Amino acid sequence: MKLLKDRIVKDGKVRAGNVLKVDSFLNHQMDIELFGEIGKEFKRRFSDREVSKILTIEASGIGIACIAAQYFNVPVVFAKKTQTKNIAGDVYTGKVESFTHGRVYDIIVAKEFLKPEDKILIIDDFLANGSALLGLAKLVKDAGAALVGAGIVIEKGFQEGGEIVRLSGVRVESLAIIDSMNEDTGIVFRD
Amino acid sequence: MKLLKDRIVKDGKVRAGNVLKVDSFLNHQMDIELFGEIGKEFKRRFSDREVSKILTIEASGIGIACIAAQYFNVPVVFAKKTQTKNIAGDVYTGKVESFTHGRVYDIIVAKEFLKPEDKILIIDDFLANGSALLGLAKLVKDAGAALVGAGIVIEKGFQEGGEIVRLSGVRVESLAIIDSMNEDTGIVFRD
User: Fold this and answer.
1) Hey, is B72 helix, strand or coil?
2) Chain B interface, mutation test: which of A29, A109, A118, A153, most B Cβ atoms within 10 Å?
3) Of the candidates A169, A135, A128, A139, which has an alpha carbon nearest to the alpha carbon of residue A53?
4) Whole-angstrom Cα distance, residue B33 to residue B126?
5) pLDDT digit string (tens) for A88-113?
6) Cα–Cα distances in Å, from A70 out to A26, A38, A64?
7) Which tens digits make up the pLDDT trace of B134-157?
8) pLDDT in tens, B67-85
9) What is the pLDDT averaged over residues B87-113?
10) Which residues of A touch B69 (CB under 8 A)?
């Protein structure tokens, strides 16, 4: 998606440790007009598939998922991150390891919001080590729902997440795949 | 806002301890069509004011803020909750006490996303003890920006937050104000 790649080049900041800061338009300040174009592109890429619900994870996936959901005419459910030891109630749970923060947390979704008849599209801002996406896919599987695929805004193609998730059989559509990035030489996208 | 009040009566669940569960349409599963109507109503109520940016707080404020932002044609910034002791970088900080979880956490916004020339509209899902809203208002004040007002989806009118925030001079527009609620007798809205 050219508009997105141009924006990453213009406003993204590459930092040591393979960190890409896009907090001026994607995950702290959010450019809602850009989100609209991202939502339309997700709809275009998954226009061949029926979707009954979008699943994302707090916090930075929520905005993109909500804007995209307007083009699918479906509700959004977001998985909650929790460090609570005792998880109460009827919930599906999974574990996610954060690339940025280097710790493991539990994610939960109330069972009433993921049903066997659901056709779930996962939407998230980043795909790096794949942990969040695999965690969300597990919730969908536990619910007995169908996983239509995953729409990702930025995939770090030099990390193993994309390959692991695709090999597991999940259709992944990433709007920008970064093959390499470097503070000095900049960002190289996959064609 | 009648559509919202009807939905709260239909799908909201009153629980002990003045807890109102609206997680089937507002803050876990999100009804994006309803969010569109909420966004339009916020725009209608603040149509007399210039807004340059919407500020909200993770996680459940983000979806509503993003959908509403489409009607204001402005970006959204969300304050991040953190329990990190050492907050790095150039950020405005505040403290918020969670009514639901009964603990205090820090909130932060990067300074580059709140400027003295900004005219900020705060959007959030709930107003109860007012702590989140006062915390967000402090960030706006610290930035030297103008606070246009606050758009709230559900105000618990029987708690003191609304009065405290209004007495502090902030214009608050709540789409549904609950004067009392009870597991047996139901919900009473303010006219």
Assistant:
1) helix
2) A29
3) A139
4) 19
5) 679 999 999 876 677 888 999 999 99
6) 18, 12, 10
7) 999 999 999 999 999 999 999 999
8) 999 999 999 999 999 866 5
9) 86
10) 30, 32
User: CA of B108: which chain A residue's CA is closest?
Assistant: A28
Q: Omega of the bond prior to A59 within 30 degrees of 0, cis?
A: yes
Of the candidates A68, A64, A67, the one whose C-alpha atom is nearest the C-alpha of residue A27 is A64
DSSP of A115-165, one letter per residue? -TT-EEEEEEEEESSSHHHHHHHHHHHHHT-EEEEEEEEEEETTSSHHHHH
Shortest CA distance from B24: residue in chain A: A113
| Interchain CB distance below 8 Å, A32 and B75 | yes
CA nearest neighbour of B73 among B52, B56, B55: B52
Domains of chain B: 2-189 (3.40.50.2020)
A48-84 residue pLDDT tens: 999 999 999 999 999 999 999 999 999 999 999 986 6
CB contacts of A113 in chain B (<8 Å) are 23-24, 28-29
Q: Kind of pairing, strands B186-189 and B172-182?
A: antiparallel
Cβ atoms of A27 and A125 within 8 Å: the answer is yes
- The predicted pLDDT at position A60 comes to 94
At B116-138, the pLDDT tens digits run 999 999 999 999 999 999 999 99
Give the nearest chain B residue to A25 (CA atoms): B75
B53-62, B83-92, B166-175, range with the lowest pLDDT: B83-92
**Which 3 state secondary structure label does DSSP give A30?**
strand
